[in-house]
Amino acid sequence: MKDAQYDQLIDDIFIALEDALDAQEQAFDYDSNGDIFTIIIPDGSKIVLNKQPPLQQLWMATKFNGHHFNYEEDGRWVDERTGVEFFSFLDEAVSKQAGFDVTLDLNS
């Protein structure tokens, strides 16, 4: 994939994430700063997403672990170790870290 396409795919995820977090009933905050998107959980802990342009990956770090997602030809971002799809994993990670169920509705 071309670098511009990769950048656009990640930027689209970050924009959708802003909208999804703004729509939550719970008080989630976030910080978007170029290649890094930080979700601030109500307890103050963080989940950090960042672009990895040289590898064309999307990385996620939670307080429990880190994951590297690759873009597949079918349009899904998939964890290179576990095979888990990014959007479902993100809901699980945010829910686990927040201590309550969260559905961000980012599947697009």
TrEMBL record:
Listed InterPro entries: CyaY (IPR047584), Frataxin/CyaY (IPR002908), Frataxin/CyaY_sf (IPR036524), Frataxin_CS (IPR020895)
SMART domains in UniProt: Frataxin_Cyay
Residues annotated as signal peptide: none
Annotated keywords: Iron, Metal-binding
One Pfam family named in its UniProt record: Frataxin_Cyay
Listed PROSITE patterns: FRATAXIN_1 (PS01344), FRATAXIN_2 (PS50810)
PANTHER family assigned to the protein according to its UniProt record, in alphabetical order: FRATAXIN, FRATAXIN, MITOCHONDRIAL
Reported function: Involved in iron-sulfur (Fe-S) cluster assembly. May act as a regulator of Fe-S biogenesis.
Family per similarity comment: Belongs to the frataxin family.
Protein known as: Iron-sulfur cluster assembly protein CyaY
